[in-house]
Amino acid sequence: MITTRDVAEADWDWVLAESPPIGGPQVITGGFLHRLKDHPAILAEEDGEKVGFAVYNPGGVRWEILGILSTIGRRGIGSVLLDEVEARAKAAGAEQVRLSATNDNFPALRFCQLRGYTLRQLIPNAIADNKKLKGIPDDEALLGLYGIEIRDEIILNKNL
Length: 160
Ligand SMILES: CC(C)(COP(=O)(O)OP(=O)(O)OC[C@H]1O[C@@H](n2cnc3c(N)ncnc32)[C@H](O)[C@@H]1OP(=O)(O)O)[C@@H](O)C(=O)NCCC(=O)NCCS
What we know:
With about 160 residues, the chain is an alpha+beta fold. It has helices spanning about 10-15, 75-90, 105-115, 125-135; strands spanning about 1-5, 25-30, 30-35, 40-45, 50-55, 60-70, 95-100, 120-125, 155-160.
């Protein structure tokens, strides 16, 4: 059974170690750099094992998911985490949840669209700008899923 709880101080090492698929311990969305550890997060566990997390940025009417990840796909972990963020947002009076995916990330784009998120904004070449913000040299293309170069950011949102 998949259960969720708040990420505690002792869980952060695990969360940050698992964070590379969502961009690492510091993620950039919409041109802003966020240190994951500065934000609230939800942990998913199955039989006491950590199997996923969602880090979010709560804000008035619009909450943002900075990263959502499951370590074992297609078992319902991502859905439980997404439902939990949305429930918290709704309970706090938010009207919208937003998240970003890169241009190669068809599994996430599919996952989110099947759960009510719509594509709202494309930020072309966002990754080059993000590398500058993180101080990473932009001399090599980053290869993403399916061998597609990771280049752009796509923002999706869902009205609650
Ligand atoms: C996107 C992501 C979070 C989805 O998580 P997930 O745990 O695979 O999600 P779920 O298992 O809830 O749903 C995925 C699919 O598996 C299906 N599924 C769930 N439980 C299942 C089961 N027991 N047996 C078969 N299929 C199942 C779901 O119905 C869903 O199918 P659908 O997309 O056709 O509706 C995951 O792919 C991931 O961690 N990606 C890497 C990080 C990332 O890109 N994050 C997004 C950007 S921040």
